Amino acid sequence: MALTDVAIRNAKPDAKAYKLTDGAGMFLLVTPAGGKLWRLKYRIDGKEKLLAIGAYPETSLGDARKRREEARALMAQGIDPSREKQRDKVRSRIQAADTATVWTAS
Are 50 and 38 in contact (CB under 8 A)? Predict the structure, then answer.
C-alpha cells in the first residue's frame, strides 16, 4: 500500500530504524534519532543497490516519487542511477571550480 503524507508525519522514532514502504522499491527509513530518509532499493547488473533520494520533509512524498520514476527510467536504459548521481556531483564540482577560476583570474 502506498504511503500518505499523514502516515509519514505520524511516524515516530523507535529503538531501531524501521522502513515504511511506498512501492516499486522505494521506502522511508525512520531512524532512532528521528530522521526520515527516502531510499530506493534496486538491482542492476545482478547486484542489489540502495539509492539515497533525500530527507523528509525537504524532499516531499511527491518529489521522492518523481525521483524514483527518474531512477527507474535510467535503469530501463541500462544506466545505474547511483553512478549517474556521482557523475553529476563531479560535474557540478568541476563547473564550480571553473567558475571560481574565472572570477579569481579577472
Answer: no
Which of the listed CATH numbers 1.10.3470.10, 3.30.160.390, 3.40.50.10090, 3.40.50.150 matches domain 5-105? Answer: 3.30.160.390
- List the chain pLDDT tens, one digit each, 106 residues: 689 999 999 999 999 999 999 999 999 999 999 999 999 999 998 999 999 999 999 999 999 999 999 999 999 999 999 999 999 899 988 888 876 665 555 5
- In whole angstroms, what is the distance from residue 22 CA to residue 90 CA? 30
Domain boundaries along the sequence of the chain: 5-105
Enter the C-alpha cell of residue 51.
539509492
Q: Residue count of the chain, please give it.
A: 106
Q: Which of 4, 5, 80, 9 is nearest to 40 (CA)?
A: 80
